[in-house]
Amino acid sequence: MSRTAKPYEIVERALELSTADGCVVIADESSSANLRWAGNALTTNGVTRGRTLTVIATVDGTEGTASGVVSRSAVTSDDLEPLVRAAEAAARGAGPAEDAQPLVTGVPASPDFTDAPAETSSSVFTDFAPALGEAFARARAGGRELYGFANHEMTSTYLGTSTGLRLRHDQPNGTLEINAKSPDRSRSAWAGHSTRDFKDVDPAAVDAELAKRLGWAERRIDLPAGRYETLLPPTAVADLLIYQLWSSAARDAAEGRTVFSRPGGGTRVGETLSELPLTLRSDPNEPGLESAPFVVAHSSGDDSSVFDNGLPLAPTDWVREGRLERLVATRHSAGLTGLPVAPAIGNLILDGGGERSLEEMVASTGRGLLLTCLWYIREVDPATLLLTGLTRDGVYLVENGEVVGEVNNFRFNESPVDLLSRAAEAGRTEKTLPREWGDWFTRAAMPALRIPDFNMSSVSQGV
Fold it and tell me: Are residues 277 and 404 in the same domain?
């Protein structure tokens, strides 16, 4: 099949070629456009396109149903039948799949299933690029240097199954990351944004915020490790709670392996995690953060199952008004745990009920730290979800409602679950880009959180 073949045609042909008892075919057609810059000057730009085909074969046996999954990129007509046969051979050579379920049925077809894939191009930067050039000029005049990149991707996913599903979703995904540095590289500040189309990103406003932070860093204050009242900005909150979501598989909790396991057996669903009225939720139709409205699973794992492909997704509260409401559950793990089916969804929102901006929260701080972002987050203890990581690109000391200077960076040791229980205030929820997980998870909206005793476990020498 040629590169010009439409994705839906590839899906249909792969299903026709299948001789397995069941088959799921996922075609991902993607395109991306990017800009990169350094020292207040554009360095590179480009556009790429790609195609990946995933075939999932299921084979019934006396002991159960087995599955085999094979994915390949740049599939041609000569590759298609060998790909289908490889998936079938993998299924026949495997033992029964633990997560086996009947393939999903009864989901209405997407009306645009046979349409050509959506594509991005350099035109997505038509308004953004000139504004970025103006920001370069202002930065140059202000004695600072801007480094960073802007990337926009469009992925059209076509999902077909032997049970008759024909589903399609177009996912735009844009990210902007900018570092501002002093000429001697001793001061650095970072800002990031998530966007669907770059129409809601203002380079001038980003540069102004970075200039303010570099100004704060002109005064340097050394502080020791310890527990400090700390304002976590939305990007840092997103990084911590995304990891919490990734660690909330229902089966793992029921088997006693996670922070959501109840001592003595079972899960902590129903327990209060925060005295604040915090609601952590996902919704495929959340305005500005829209994601696939059905399950797209290229492989099976603790929190996903290839047998659930095409299962409709609905708004889901993971934590509601401070109470643990749901854990991520496939149809299989829901059956094992007795919990409701709750597949993972491609966005995450924390509603805290607060109305104050981060700037207003700073203004009401007697003495504390203001972070820019977190970096190099790693798990220390799954039983408590204790995480460690570093602060980066600016930690600032607040005294009497004003930022008085930049302090050294720290290594931290904290559990996001514990942070929710100790949070003293949540600000206004806003779209944000997680710094650490931005390559994998970009659709998030979070408030700033005030933590009265954030654990800065040691001093870090990084910038």
Answer: yes
